[in-house]
Amino acid sequence: MKKYYCTYFDRNYLAKGLALIESLDIHESCPYQLIVICLDTLTLNFFNFVNYKNVKAISLNEVEKNDTELKRAKSNRSLIEYYWTLTPTILLRLFEWYPWIKIITYLDADLFFYASPDPILHELGNNSVMLHEHRFSPEQQYLERNGKYNKGILCFKNDFNSLKVLNWWRNQCNKWCYHRLEDGKFGDQLYLNQFPIRFKGITVLQNIGAGVAPWNHIQYEFSEDNTGKKLVNKKPLIFYHFHSLEIVTPEIIVPSKYFPTTPFTIDIIKICFEQYAQQLYKNFQKLQSIINNFHSDL
C-alpha cells in the first residue's frame, strides 16, 4: 500500500526539508509520496526545478484559496504563528483534494529518519489518530506546560473521528494560535492535550525509537550494532527530531538553540548529529549551486 506523508516549510527550512526527504528515500520501503506545502515562492520554484520523484510540491496559495477564516487569522498573528495555524487546515485540504488517501502522516520538516517508519504506522491499528508524547527527561519536565504531546509526527485516518478532530483543531487554531502560554493554550500544540479527552479513536505512540529529541535524549543510551544500525536503548532509532538546531553557517551548527543546557554526549553526537550535519552541509552546497546567493535565516 502506498504511504502518504505531508510537511510544510519555507526557504529557512529547505536544507532540513531535503534531509527529511533523503532519509525517507533511504528508509521507506513502501511506495510513498511526501506532499510539501511550500510556504514561499523560492521553495516552490526549487521543487519545480529539481525533480524529487516522491515529492509533490503545492503552493501555500492553494491552501489559502477562498478561506476567509484563514485569511483573517493571518492578519492578526506573526508569520511563525500563522504557520502553526496552518497545520490542521493543510491536513483537511489534503483529505479533500485526495479522497483516496486512507492515512496521512504529518512530519515536521526537521525530522530525520535512521530506520524504517513501518513500526510507527503499525501502532495506529484500528484507531483514527496517533499522537506521540514529548517524554521529557526529568530535567526538562517543566516544559510539559507547553504540551504533553509533540506535533513532530501525527497520523490521521481519513474517517469520521479523524475529520472531527481536525475540524475542531482548525477552529481552535484559527481563533487562537500564538507563541505564548495563555489559558491552557500554546501555539497549535497544547490543543493536542485535548484530543484523548474530547475524541474517540486516539492512540499514543509507544515505540521508544520514534520521537527522540533534545528534550528527552539524555535519558537514553545510544549505540550501533555490528551492521551499523543506530540504536536507542538497544531498539532501532527510527527518527530524531532536530528541534531548534541552528545553522550559523554551513560549517557551523548549534545542536539545539533553545536547549543550550541540554547535554550532548559524544554518543549522541556520533549516532544522531554527525550524519545529519553532513547531510545538511551537502544540501547547502546543492542549494547554493542552484540558487544564486542562497541563504536561510536560521
Automatic annotation (TrEMBL):
According to the UniProt entry, its GO molecular function terms are: transferase activity
Top-level taxon:
Bacteria
**Entries under InterPro entries matching the protein:** Nucleotide-diphossugar_trans
Keyword annotations for this protein, in alphabetical order, are: Transferase
Output this protein's name. Answer: Glycosyltransferase
